[in-house]
Amino acid sequence: MIALLRRDLTLAVRAGGGFGLGLAFFLIVVILVPFGVGPERELLTQIAPGILWVAALLAALLSLDRIFALDWEDGALALLATSPLPLEGVALIKAVAHWLTTGLPLAFAAPALGFFLNLTPEGYVPLFWSVLIGTPALSMIGTFGAALTVGLRRGGLLLSLLVLPLYVPTLIFGAEVARRGAEGLAYSTPLILLAGITAGSLALLPIASAAALRVNLR
Amino acid sequence: MSFWEFANPKKFMDWTTPVVPWMAGLSAVFLAVGLIWGFFFTPDDFRQGSTVKIIYLHVPAAFIAINAWIMMLVASLIWLVRRHHVSALAAKAAAPVGVTMTVIGLATGAIWGQPMWGTYWAWDPRLTSFLILFLFYLGYMALWAAIEDPDTAADLTSVLCIVGSVFALLSRYAVLFWNQGLHQGASLSLDAEENISDVFWQPLVISMAGFVLLFIALVLLGTRTEIRLRRAKALSARAARA
Lengths: 218, 242
Description:
The structure holds 2 protein chains of 2 kinds.
Chain A: H1 2-15, H2 18-37, H3 41-62, H4 66-73, H5 76-82, H6 87-114, H7 124-149, H8 156-182, H9 188-217
Helix pairs in contact in A: 1-6, 2-3, 2-6, 3-6, 3-7, 3-8, 6-7, 6-9, 7-8, 7-9, 8-9
Chain B: H1 9-40, H2 55-82, H3 85-117, H4 125-146, H5 150-178, H6 198-241
Helix pairs in contact in B: 1-6, 2-3, 2-5, 2-6, 3-4, 3-6, 4-5
C-alpha cells in the first residue's frame, strides 16, 4: 500500500499539471470572484467562506478523472486488481494520494486566499480546519465517481454531473464551519458533522468504488 | 407461484400484457375523479383561496418522486443480489417517470408559492432537497445513457443508486441544518391526529391513488419497451451472424 501511495504521489508530482494545476485553478477562481461581484469589502467579507469552499470543491473536481484514467489506459489497473492488495485498498490509496496532492495544499492555500476576500481574522483557523477535514470526503467521493466512469471515453463531464450532487452535504457543513468561524460563532457542531461525513465516506465508499472498478474491469 | 417468477422476461411479458391497460384505465378513472372533484367540487380555502387546489397535483407528484427513487433502490438491490434483468430494466424505466414527477412537484410548488409565499423559489430545506433529488435522477439517467454494455450499465447504475440514496438522505438532513424552512409539514400522514380537513382529504387520496396507478402503468410499460428493445437487439445480432 505504501509503495502504491509513493508511486501515485511521485507520478502526480513529476507528471506536472495535476499537482500545481488544482492550486492555480483555486487561485484563479477566488481572484475572479471580486471581478464578478464588485470590490465592496463588506460584501466580500460576507461571501468569502462560501466562495472559498465552492472554489476548493471545484479545484478538487478538476483532477478527479486523472485518478484512474492513466492506470486504466496503460493496464496498470488490471495489474493492481490481480495484486494481493484488495481493490478496496487500491481505491482508498488512490483517494489518499488525490487528497495529499489537492486537498492538503488547498487547506493551506485557503486561508492565504481568504486574505484577498477580506475574510475576518477569526475566520482563518476554522476555514483551515474545515477544508482540512472536509476535503478527504471530497477526494473519496470523487474516487467513487472516477471508478464509475473509468471505462467511458468521455467521462469527464458525466463525472461532474455524478459527483457534484454527492458533494452537497460536505459543502453545506464545510461552508457552515467557515461561515460560523468568520462570524465568531461556535463552530464545533458542523465541524463534528463534517468529520462524520469524512469518516463515513472513508469507511464505506472504498467498497462501492471497488465494486464499480470490478464491473469496469470485467 | 412465487414473486421471483416475474424475473423470467417471458412470464413478465405474459402477465403484464393485460395488466398495463387495466392499470392505465384505472389510473385515468381515479385521476379524473380525484382532480375533477378536487378542482370543481371542493370549497376554496379560507386563507389560500383557490390556489389550495394545486395540492391535488403537488402532493401526489412529490410522493411519487420520492417513492420512485426508493423503488429504483429496491430494484437495483434485487439486480445486484439475484441478477434478474427485469429488475434492472424496471429501475431504468422508473427514472424518467421519477424525474418528471420531481419536475411537476417543483413546478406546481413554484406556481403555488408565488401568490402564497410571494416568491417562486426559496432555499427552503424541502425545496432544496427536491432539487438535489432532481440532480440525482439526472446523473442516474446520464450514466445509463453513457454506458454501452447493458450489464455493465445496470451494475454501475445500481451502485450509483445505492450510494446516491445514502447521500440523498444525508442531503435531506444537511439542508435542514443549513436553513430553516418555509414549507409546511406533511399534508398527509398516518400517525397524525388531524390531517388536512376532510373536504380536501378525500379527493386528495383519490388522486394520489391515481398517481400511484399511473406510476405503476408507466413503469410496466417502460420495462416492457426495454425488454422488447433487448429482444430486437438480440434478433438483429443473430441475423447479422447468420
